[in-house]
Amino acid sequence: MKKFSRKSRIGWFMLIATTGITLELLLNWKLLVPLLIGCFLIYYGLMKARRDAGKIYFIIGALLTIIPIMSTAFFKILMIGAVIYGLIQYSKAKKQAQKLVIKTVPPGTKAKVNRKKPYIKNRLTGNHRVVNEVFEWDDINIQCGFGNTIIDLGMTMLPPGDSIVLIRGFIGNIHLIVPFDASITVNHSAISGKLKIFNHEEELLNSNVIYYTDENNEVSTRRIKIITNVAFGDVEVRRT
Predict the structure, then answer these.
(1) What is the mean pLDDT of residues 130-144?
(2) What dihedral angle (degrees, nearest 10) is formed by the CA atoms of 5, 10, 11, 17?
(3) Which of 25, 41, 101, 112 shows its CA 20 to 30 Å from the CA of 47?
(4) CA distances in angstroms from 23 to 18, 82, 197, listed in the order given
(5) Using an 8 Å Cβ cutoff, are 150 and 127 in contact?
(6) With contact defined as beta carbons under 8 Å apart, do 31 and 68 qualify?
(7) β-bridge pairing 200-212 and 183-197
(8) Residue 35, burial from CB neighbour count under 10 angstroms (0-12, 13-18, 19+)
(9) Which residue has better confidence, 48 or 39?
(10) How far is residue 160's CA from residue 179's CA, in Å, rounded to a whole number?
(11) Residue 21: helix, strand or coil by DSSP?
């Protein structure tokens, strides 16, 4: 019989706990009603985020959402399991010697740190669409909680070399449109969902996979490295 790896066991435990929490919330109206009200207040607060009242609505909604979830029996089991797992890992780490490597720099060396706001930003809820838009390229690193994400890179002037696209999501689909002349590497991790890369499609269950195109990455002028993490949802990568 095939043995599950440590990551696989953790993934299944998280999936079972999440499913149990969801079912317990749906079957207990005393927990479901405050949760729904909290979600509505969070959404309303995000819509009015620029106002002080919107921030208050968001905080109240977050509390009404967190309290019912923390009140479920499955959440308490999850926390107990996490504490036990943490103690086991801590005890193992104390038994193993750690090697520390210290790197030094010449005295007086100073680095100038510049700050820049990216064009594509994080979004907690709602659909995220960047289609038929021209923007200055920066490596993409965003988090999307709930909702679909569509990003079209067909009209973007990618610089020579490696370009990074990192997208993390919880529930929702991710759709990426890439230029036809760029070599692609996809590193995808998901609990459940489909992965479609050009003409290849497969179902994933608590898996992480890496795909790359047939082009020689050393010869290709433009290379896109796509890293996607989604708990429940589909990911599709296609050419323009």
Answers:
(1) 78
(2) 150
(3) 25
(4) 9, 21, 33
(5) yes
(6) yes
(7) antiparallel
(8) buried
(9) 39
(10) 13
(11) helix
**Radius of gyration, alpha carbons of the chain:** 22
Q: Which residues have CB under 8 Å from 202's CB, separation 6+?
A: 194, 195
Tokens standing for residue 74? 């499955």
In whole angstroms, give the CA distance from residue 165 to residue 150.
Answer: 13
pTM confidence score: 0.54
Please state, as a whole number, how many other Cβ atoms lie within 10 Å of the Cβ of residue 148.
17
Q: Count CB neighbours of 167 within 10 A.
A: 22
What's the CA gap between 4 and 10, in Å, rounded?
10
Strands (E), 60-199: 123-125, 128-130, 140-146, 149-152, 161-171, 174-178, 183-197
DSSP state letter for 8: H
Residue 206 CA: distances (Å) to CA of 12, 109, 192, 231: 7, 46, 6, 9
Mean pLDDT, all residues of the chain: 79
Which of 31-45, 91-105, 117-131 ranks highest by mean pLDDT?
A: 31-45
Residue 106 backbone dihedrals phi, psi, to 5 degrees: -60, 145
**Inter-axis angle of helices 52-71 and 29-47, nearest 10:** 160
**By percentage, how much of the chain surpasses pLDDT 90?**
8
187 CB-near residues (< 8 Å, 6+ apart): 208, 209, 210, 225, 226, 227, 228
pLDDT for residue 226? 93
Q: What is the tens place of the pLDDT at every residue in 106-126?
A: 665 565 666 677 777 777 666
